[in-house]
Amino acid sequence: MPRFSVIVPAYKVQAYLHECLESVLGQSFPDLELIAVDDCSPDACGAVIDEFAARDARVLAVHLPENAGLGHARNAGLERATGDYLVFLDGDDTLTPDALRAVADRLKETGDPDVLVYDYARTYWTGEAVRNQVATQLTEEGPAPFRLEERPGLLGLLMVVWNKAYRREFVERAGFRFPPGYYEDTPWTYPALMSADTIATLDRVCVHYRQRRHGSILGTSGRGHFDVFEQYDRLFAHVAAHPELDRWRPVLFRRMLDHFATVFVKRGRLPRAARAEFLRRARAHYRRYRVPGAPATARTRLRHLMIGLGTHRTYRLLSLLSRIRRRAVRLTARSRHALRDAALRFHYRLQRCLPLRADRAVFSSHRGRGHGCNPGALESAFRSFAPHIRTSWIAHPEHRRTVPDRARHVRPGTAAYWTALARSKYLVNNVDFDRRMVKRPGQIMIQTQHGTPLKRMGLDLQDRPAAAHGTDFAELLRGADKWDYCLSANRHSTLVWERAFPSSYTTLEYGLPRNDVFQHATPADVDRLRASLGVPADAVAVLYAPTYRDYRRAQPYALDLERVLDRLGPGFVVLARAHPAHTAPPTRTAGGRVIDVSGRPGVESLCLASDVLVTDYSSLMFDYAVLDRPIVVLADDREAYEAARGTYFDLHAFPPGALAHGEDELVDVFTTGRWRDERSSRLRAAFRERFCPYDDGRAAERVVRHVVLGESDRLPPFVPLAERRPVPPAAAALARVPDPERPLGSVPAPNTAVPLTETL
């Protein structure tokens, strides 16, 4: 008997069925049967199902003699199911990778509940995936399993059959079957949740719910949408037959009215001539099943009132008034915005006529994300070495807490923001300021950059349209023309910046200020950071920080972090730092061994708290090398990345540590100890000598002394690599002596000539 019976009805989905069935059979949890039901589809669905059945014994092909609808097709699958649990999946949707393994683990963890509810994400033709907006209801915190009375918010989820796994014995005992017609999920899912003795949740996206442009059943106009009334008649009949469920009538009444309103207002569902009749039918159901005193929000009460009145003319009048109000609000908002924008432009022109303030400096990082990166380190250095300079930091309100008390917080787009840009002598950023900013004579702009470039940048993207994304290269050069100084960590960076952003600025090859903390932090600081993140004292913390893929619309993770940790064992945890373009948070484990650190304001603290970095093409590897801790490069899509974005040197020829080309190889790198062996250390030493010659903890001080204090001839001397003592990692495992018998292979000697920028 298999663990899962996955039931897939198919009708007019030939373009998507192959992907759907592959997503089931390709699951890492193989203990399943796939019951694919051809609902007498006029296209090639039946042939596709037969092809899969011929090649995989787990597939049972069912061909219905006539088209009977989605409900009947699911019932046909139910009659043949033998698995412990029933999982439903529509023929145009897909299971996410490792979904069934996560479901199986959660079922085992919660004692095989009657129903397990999991999450989904809507996927669009653009490649965008948007997670369910009420996913908070699926939290795994608290006791599990439970009854619906303990978590009634679950009834606020989308009432579909395919975001749940059902224990087959429970379904057979309750006698659940799907009715004919549209909206057949309604009289199944509500009774299943209300009747279940045990329910559990899984806070994980397990289904990708395809949003088709055309052809979906619910997107087709017709009188079939009137079936929604019969489905709620069946639901309330079920409640009437089970008096113990009467407590749920108020909730079901509200959900029914919400459903009617949704069907009515969705464009393209109801024929124009049928809309008045639909409202009359909705009014009849309102009166038939009304529960006095059912609470609702103000907006919901208005929708319920329209259904209760039930006249098309009244609805049209109220809708017209609502549209007029919304348009008036939008017009007022646009007018207010235009007036405010004009006032700010006038204010900025006026401020530019006033004298510069030689004792003011304004800083920003990543377009207002908060205090951090190189500008953050420089802001602190300004206060330490040039205390006569008053500093301001530009940050959006949600990042206000990251701004130090001694720095003034400035919100982007305000009068204070434009005043700071107009009057401050020093302007510091790691990207460009607002393109409308006019640099005045006497102002000094410091472009800090935000790392050592591995991937192509600036003008070097002109022949890379996938990566350029419509970049205005003329505007890019106008921005570079405003720079007075550009910071560089090494000679490689200097050559790249001066080629990719050609202008008349001065390059300061002093190291990167954000890396200064690696030389100044103490073991106590590391312990404190690990404790704040929830890293166990004896665990090896792996910082996983992938970069952005220009050639992909969606940005999924290359790794299943939960599966990797299962294979590595209990001695490891992962600090997962998503790129802002990633479309989903990292997978969370029940034991908390995957820690999402994507929202942390500074990556430097994550580097200090971790023991090893796993990355792909992120510039973070250059910063992490300053710490002299192990680095593992996961390059599973090297050819595609090179074709789309391109890199300045061959990372495979000159890596900072061990290389892996996929998940299995990455696990092998850790289980065999290659991530921290002598060969890895020698690779890292060569990499550090090439790319970390100046990061000795005093980069920010050198910049301030050169630019602000005019002490370019009295800068602190650079500390040689051999004499630096970055703070050591916390994990005791890293202190073990590598096996001297392991062959070292061919490692570039530190002084071996390696091309810095192969295309220069």
From TrEMBL:
GO terms for molecular function: CDP-glycerol glycerophosphotransferase activity. It comes from the Bacteria. It is found in: Cell membrane. InterPro entries: Glycerophosphate_synth, Glyco_trans_2-like, Nucleotide-diphossugar_trans, TagF_C, TagF_N, Teichoic_Acid_Biosynth. Residues 738-760 are annotated as: Disordered. Pfam families: Glycos_transf_2, Glyphos_transf. Residues 5-171 form the Glycosyltransferase 2-like domain. Its main location: membrane. It is a peripheral membrane protein. GO terms for biological process: teichoic acid biosynthetic process. Belongs to the CDP-glycerol glycerophosphotransferase family. PANTHER family: TEICHOIC ACID GLYCEROL-PHOSPHATE PRIMASE (PTHR37316), TEICHOIC ACID GLYCEROL-PHOSPHATE TRANSFERASE (PTHR37316:SF3). This is Glycosyl transferase. It comes from Streptomyces populi.
